[in-house]
Amino acid sequence: MKRLLENQVVALSVGDTGIDCTVAALSRGEAELHPVRPAEAKLLPAASPSATLVFTSRGGLVMLRGALYRTGCAEELRFAEGTSPTASVTAEQRRRAARVEIALPTSVTAVAADGTLEGEEQELVTRDVSLGGLALETRRAPLRNGSLLRFRVTLPDMSEIGGTARVVRAAGSVCGLRFEDVAPADRMKLASYLVATQRPRPAA
After folding, report:
1. What is the per-residue pLDDT across 29-65, written as a single tens digit (0 to 9) for each?
2. CA angle, 88 as apex, 133 and 96 as ends, to 5°?
């Protein structure tokens, strides 16, 4: 919990359901969380011994496991680190996943100022992926700096994540994208993939 900061945005999930929250307060191994979109609080149970909290720290990813419960207000959530018998906090659960170099099929389509899609969908390949964005090998299809794109990435298990991303760096055949809007469930799926990718493999 020492890496958490007040007012930081985090992803909170129970099972397959996840929502974005801000950290309202920190105290004695617990974090008071307020949903970014208050109506989404009802998507989570009143209490659960198996909750996951994901956030970025020092350029990497931190995933904590613990318990979730509500206080007097339905929209005030509390995450208690490591209080679940089946979710004790270990170094493995705290693993930070940095940028992972991997080629994954990705499709992108430009988004117009009014939010509609414009132009043809382009089929590209990632050069690396992180929780905050990705780098694309654009080959002969350069992307414009500052443009907004709708993207879809296919993970190795053939599941997909998607959303919108902004082009923040276009140099030569490589283009850097920063995620703008990614659903919490997709962000958790990506976080789980990154953590699993960084897990040490047993010696042969």
Report:
1. 889 999 998 888 888 888 888 888 888 877 677 888 8
2. 25
